[in-house]
Structures are given as structure tokens and as C-alpha cells.
Design brief:
39% of the residues lie in helices and 18% in strands. By secondary structure, the protein is an alpha+beta fold. α1 (2-21) packs antiparallel against α2 and α2 (41-55) packs parallel to α5 (108-117). InterPro entries: Allrgn_V5/Tpx1_CS, CAP_dom, CAP_sf, CRISP-related.
């Protein structure tokens, strides 16, 4: 039962992420006009995170321009060395670094998918992460105390992409269950 629920939860999150990562259709194809869909950066980050939260009956996050500005300033500090960002991560922050695939255009959905994947290591019964596994970023997204989020994406000097989301109030408190 728990495995089926985890798989169903992951597949639902993945479906939302895939929908958000689809490139807009060209204005004309095969002689007919198609609808172009423009999804804001805020929506690309918030919608899949809110989908994850809805599965666990958590209230949705609201986009905060102030937190987005904070995230942008924080990420800009690491443009010269994106690898240093993970080590300098303050509380209430999630970080994703996209690298390794030459020419890949990393999307917010890639960051949220990586954080969602950590749910595979989170034990709902105990509220803890499996031994030797990481699930802090999943727990940050899911933290019941979070109400607002702001995110940013920057291109680093080495070609990697750094994405970060800042949450308020700070969630993922040590010793507290996220939801």
C-alpha cells in the first residue's frame, strides 16, 4: 500500500512537471494556427510545488516577489562558482544545480522534479529520511509552516544553471515533521 501511494504521488508530481516543461507550440504548424501557452517563471516553480503539497493536503504556496528578489541576489553571488552555492545554503532555501548535459536548457521543472524525487527516501510513518539518503529539499517544499516562496534561476560562468527557491516563514525545522 505505501509503495503504491508513493508511486502514485510521484507519478502525479511528474505529470504536472512534464506539462509545465513542454515548450510552447509554434504559432503555425501544418497550415493551422495553434494556441501558444506562456507560463511565467513564477508559475513554473510554484505550480509543481503546490501539486506536491496538495497530495499531502498542505495549503498552497503563494509567490512572493520579495523572496524572488532575495533568491535572485543570493544566486547572483555564485555566478562565478555555482558549486559553492550548496555549501552556503541558509535555512529556508532549496538549491538545484543543472550540469552535465551539454547544451541542455535547464527548466524550473527540472529543479522541482529533483526535489520531488527525494520523496522516495522520506518515510511518512516516522517523518524521517532513509539512512544515508537526502530528502531535506523535499521536506522544505512540503513544510507545513511555509506560506510564501520566491525563486530565481541564473546561468553560471561554467555553463551550469543554478536555481534556488526561498521560503517564508522558514520551514524544514530540525526535529519537526514537515507535514
Amino acid at each position: 500500500m505505501a509503495m503504491e501511494y508513493t508511486t502514485r504521488r510521484w507519478l502525479g508530481a511528474l505529470a504536472a512537471i512534464v506539462l509545465l516543461s513542454c515548450a510552447p507550440a509554434p504559432a503555425e504548424a501544418a497550415g493551422r494556427k495553434l494556441l501558444q501557452i506562456q507560463i511565467s517563471l513564477a508559475q513554473q516553480f510554484v505550480v509543481p510545488q503546490n501539486h506536491m503539497r496538495a497530495i499531502q493536503e498542505q495549503r498552497p504556496l503563494k509567490w512572493s516577489s520579495g523572496l524572488a528578489d532575495q533568491a535572485e541576489r543570493w544566486a547572483a553571488r555564485f555566478k562565478g562558482n555555482c558549486a559553492a552555492a550548496s555549501a552556503a545554503m541558509p535555512g529556508g532555501v532549496n538549491v538545484f544545480r543543472g550540469f552535465g548535459e551539454a547544451g541542455k536548457a535547464w527548466q524550473p521543472s527540472d529543479a522541482v522534479a529533483a526535489w520531488a524525487e527525494q520523496s522516495n527516501y522520506f518515510d511518512l510513518a516516522s517523518g524521517a529520511c532513509a539512512a544515508g539518503k537526502l530528502c531535506a529539499q523535499f521536506k522544505q517544499v512540503m513544510s507545513k509552516g511555509n506560506t510564501d516562496v520566491g525563486c530565481a534561476s541564473v546561468k553560471c560562468a561554467d555553463g551550469t544553471t543554478l536555481m534556488t527557491c526561498h521560503y517564508s516563514p522558514l520551514g524544514n525545522v530540525f526535529g519537526e515533521r514537515p507535514f
